[in-house]
Structure prediction request, 474 residues.
Amino acid sequence: MKESLDPGCSCGCDNHGNKEPVSGLQSTGVSIMLKMDYTQAGCGIEPKNTFADYEKPGYILSSFVEDFILSDTGLVPKVKTKMDKSDIKATIMVRSGIGRNNYKVAPGLYCVGNPDKTSEVMITANFKLTFDHLRRELENINAWILVLDTRGVNVWCAAGKGTFSTKELVKRIKLCSLEKVVDHKRVIVPQLGATGVAAKTVKRESGFRVVYGPVRAKDIPAFLGNNRKADKKMRMVTFTFIERLILTPVELNTILKPALITSVVLIFLSGFGPGIFSFSSAFGRGMVSVLALIVGIISGAVITPTLLPYIPFKEFAAKGIISGAVFAALLFLLISSAIYGVAAFISLFLFIVAISSYLSMNFTGATPFTSPSGVEKEMKRFIPVQVIALVISTGLWIYSAF
Amino acid sequence: MEDIRYLDDVSSLVLNQDKCIGCGLCTEVCPHNVFELRQGKSTIIDFNACMECGACVNNCPSNALEVSPGVG
Prediction:
């Protein structure tokens, strides 16, 4: 994973201004040459690597850094507001659930544009997807970005888990000597960070006043333009069709491994019959049961999440029963000739419904509106139902082979 | 968000209006517009939208709010 250049300290925000003065630095353009003695460069070759002076053994310069500017605490990486191909590729991977747990940027101070001592300080998490969301909305804005160490987790989840916290914010403000970077005493914290941040404590311990910005980074320009006031719409979370859809690949990815194990068990179970165990039966009936599993997974992990508001009932588990029942019926229409006997039909139906209901319930953890108390209530009611359905289904499946 | 609602009457949110100093910070941090300032006091206007995220509790300067979610 790429790490940002970290020339001086553990907070990733440069050398705190106590080292050699830097001369000849331009805040724009790419021809930044520092303290380099070309008379000793030799061979008469013009150096081409414009970032050569920022390179350090053991570090890789982040591709999203386009320049470095000089603040009163030293050099601060200036980040691009446009996404590179590599950013987009990585985003697709992470959205599919690949490498999602280690997609980070180094915590510390960054900037966009050409900020000065009056510029705003935007606080964010060090999940690279979060960081990208922020920087691409800051085109034509001069601002500082203070990245907290949230262990690569987004703002809201990290706030709930205690890493996007009052303690971390205060610590990072001090580590980066933010009082030397800006004249004002104000930081803009994303609203969803409020779950982990107590504004009054931050003020008391760091001197900086927390101003809560909008929920979504895309509203930041409007928020800043409106004298740092967010309107009601900017303050409310949404859960649109696209927002729900984009979560489903990760849901599927997490289910993949248990699904494979379940498939093996299903094929094994399907082999039992009059001749104790039959391989042809394990294959034939096994395929039907695995197909049912796939249908249950699609119903619970894709259909319920995407069609959430259109499926009746408020309990996710109940929504999953509805979508599971519909999809079981569709499957039966397609492959009824491969299923023998009423017991087998009932078994497969219960199986699909149980899987769909469980996975739908599981999706409560990914939504921005379900209360833990509600989820607890729902689980107490529906887990027994799902387990009973599964037990009856298994019994009937073995019975139906005889 | 008005079109997607979760279970009613489950939230553990409690507002003690006597302690409220009317700063309005809860109306700012709540992602579901649960609060509104009325006559200088915070008022719960949409109890069932509460998802117990704790943002209001965390930021209330006068400890007028409480929430105690289960383990979820």
In short: Chain A has a mean pLDDT of 87.
